[in-house]
Design brief:
Blueprint (H helix, E strand, L loop, with lengths): L2 H26 L9 H4 L5 H23 L13 H10 L5 H10 L7 H32 L3 H9 L8 H25 L4
Helix pairs in contact: 1-3, 1-6, 3-6, 4-8, 6-8
Length: 195
């Protein structure tokens, strides 16, 4: 799949899932009294604020996907034999094994040396993480308030951090990390045809 198609697919899914999340939220919680979104819960934004903040998030993530779509720039001319080494050269300016790449990526050390590549990866990762988190949020509203599944509510309580429900966030982050694997392999295939 081309970068443009990846970006378009992610953006369309982001728009649809965001609108669905907003619609389901307003259906089950029209007063926003039990909304977990920190912008609503902590800052007291009402319906218009929730809609505006969701629209802003979609626009910002769309811009991140546009950066991703531009393709790599300023990559060192180092021979690479696999997707992880290619991803490491792009982000860190040196070859790494898959384990070294994930260690660097997850620990944020060393810091990426190529800002453009960093923003490409961040745009791709964040868009897919938000898509998965919002799909999880839609499922949560339906499971807890539509079907009234007590076990799911208990699962959300067990995964809360300092009282804040984090299950949807955790699922989003895990999906975003999975999509980094997709990105690394896709980038390698696009820039190394026949490998």
């Amino acid at each position: 799949m081309t970068r443009s198609r990846h970006a378009l697919l992610a953006f369309l899914l982001l728009v649809v899932v965001s609108a669905t999340d907003l619609g389901v939220t307003l259906h089950f919680n029209p007063t926003l009294s039990i909304e977990a979104n920190p912008l609503v819960a902590q800052l007291g934004l009402q319906r218009a604020g929730l809609i505006a903040s969701n629209a802003l998030i979609v626009v910002v993530l769309g811009l991140g996907l546009l950066v991703y779509r531009q393709g790599p720039r300023n990559l060192p001319d180092l021979p690479v034999a696999d997707p992880w080494s290619y991803a490491a050269v792009g982000l860190y300016g040196r070859r790494m094994t898959r384990i070294q790449f994930w260690r660097a990526f997850l620990s944020c050390w060393p810091l990426p040396s190529n800002g453009h590549q960093f923003f490409r990866y961040a745009g791709f990762f964040t868009a897919w993480a938000v898509i998965a988190a919002r799909v999880s949020a839609v499922f949560t509203w339906i499971a807890v308030h539509g079907y009234e599944w007590p076990w799911y509510g208990e699962l959300r309580e067990r995964t809360a951090i300092l009282g804040y429900p984090c299950l949807e966030l955790m699922l989003g982050l895990l999906w975003g990390l999975f999509m980094i694997r997709v990105l690394a392999h896709s980038e390698y295939r696009l820039d190394h045809p026949g490998s």
